[in-house]
Amino acid sequence: MNAPALHGDAAPALGFRIDHSGGRWLARLMRGTEYFSGAVLAVDVAIVFASVVYRYFLHDPWHWAEEIARALMVIQVFFGAATVLARSQHVGIDVFRGMLPSSWRPALMQLCSWIIVAVSGTLFVSSCQLLFDAQGQTTPIGLPQWIYIYPVVIGSAFMTLFGIANAVNGPARTVWGTFAAGAALCGAVWCWNTLMPEHPVQPWFLLTAGFLVGLLIGLPIAFVLALSSLLYFLTDPTLPLLIYSQQVLAGMDHFVLLAIPFFVLAGLLMESNGMSSRLIELLLRIFGRVRGGLNLIMIVATAFFSGVSGSKLADIAAVGGIIMPAVRKTRQDPNEAAGLLACTAVMAETIPPCINMIIMGFVANVSIAGLFMAGLIPAAVLALSLAAVAVYVGKKINPDEAFDIRTPLLPLIGGALVALVMVTMIGKGVTSGVATSTEISAFAVIYALVVGGFAFRELTLQSVVQLFVKSASMAGGILFIVAAASSLSFALTLLQIPVYVSDAMVAFGREYGSIFFVLASVLIMIVFGAVLEGAPALIIFGPLLTPIAQQLGVHPLHFGTVMVIAMGLGLFAPPIGLGLFATCSITGTEVKHVARPMMKYLAVLFLVLILLVLVPQFSMWLPTHLGLS
Fold this sequence. Notes:
Blueprint: H1 21-56, H2 65-86, H3 95-98, H4 105-133, H5 146-167, H6 172-195, H7 203-217, H8 221-235, H9 242-250, H10 259-272, H11 275-287, H12 293-309, H13 312-329, H14 334-347, H15 355-364, H16 368-374, H17 376-393, H18 409-432, H19 437-456, H20 461-494, H21 497-512, H22 514-532, H23 534-551, H24 556-571, H25 578-587, H26 591-614, H27 617-625
């Protein structure tokens, strides 16, 4: 599996050589880019936080703040995506490539590098055209439109440059052989369409082929989506190329999506300033001697951290980094623990402020605050079900063996209280409606940075800088997938795929009923959650299926909740779930050894998901009583 950007260290190995002056120059450019992106994230947090303070406490709103914050987010996305590409850390699945003959794999990996160069370069050309077309245009408050487009131009130029550096970093025969093969294939399609205009290769066929071949050869998910839509835009003569970059930009130019980098940053700050380790040690001291106590602590800790970071893979990194050493020191089975850890991420998919709930609400035009509340009781039911199995199969441990140094009890309790205040602040902000999820996430960052920093004094200036840099890169990797999926969604709309899907699913729902429609939608999300990764599956199918569910009488909050859980089940399920590969990478285990012990947990999660589909009251009780439905 390509190393996921969510778990890269602050400075992992570069994707290109640095043993010559050109490589060193690229390395400096990459580091400068990621530090600039981190600085932009810091400015963005400051602007959103200050605008909230001025509006709510000083009654002097900054009308320009949202547009500036969105423009800064565009910089974070495209600069962050460029640095993730430079480090070869874009999320991808190589399971299908692993099924092919081993002699093919080096050439296929090299071909992926050239496809990335082609997509990035075309995005650069398209964004330059868009920039020229936008001359003289302004935003609603009078700012020049280029403040949104220049980051795409510069970021895609960096992506192209870093992509070329990665592509030529290999044996010359493979490098230039795959380049020639790719160029020949493109030339053949162009010649055929030019010489045989009455029988051209259809854009829909190239879109489908690009998607399937990209998955098969292990192309990173973001570029699978971007390639598929690009092939459509290039071969449809009615579309100017600038539409491509316009749709990529439109996919992430939304204020609500700024909550994603903010919550990720808050989670990393919480982990680094000692909140995470103190809470888990306190739980071990309290529940460690109970049968299955270590398993219960894993469930509780993942649920707790899900209320801060919003990213399930980030939660696994935080919990796994602390729990797994304790698992090994107490002589427990690390494969069993890794399987349960992956399943706790599925359990926590709907605990606010989950990134995928934000994305689902955004693309399906459903209340994000309502989704947050709708997901709480289902998450609790999933947690209790997992806990029952975890206690039944678990063992007692000696918690004294879990840590080399025991922290005094009062500091442990104090650390837990500081963290609980943070989670309570987020939950209260979401339910009260006094602020948006983006504004709440900015407060969470400031709280973790200031209160957590002063309470534990474990953050240094250098570590804070590295956390901002890392968060900006993580957000770039996540949101570039969202942007690429948006361009594919637009192409599918032009092909009227939503209309065909809608007609077929409406007919299915009317014949078999709304329950079977929801069950079919759940199965679709499980499959595509595994194949596509979470965000793209939600972006493509969320806006397609949610209106149909509403036509059939299914409440969108209930539908959105079960869709997100189903997506998580696919994301973390063997044999190809990307989240499971990431979990095994974090825990130092192997998928083939983890898959068997985790099946009992997955089975319980699947049965509870069916129960949640059949009983909408689990999802709807809390939003209804809070007036959010």
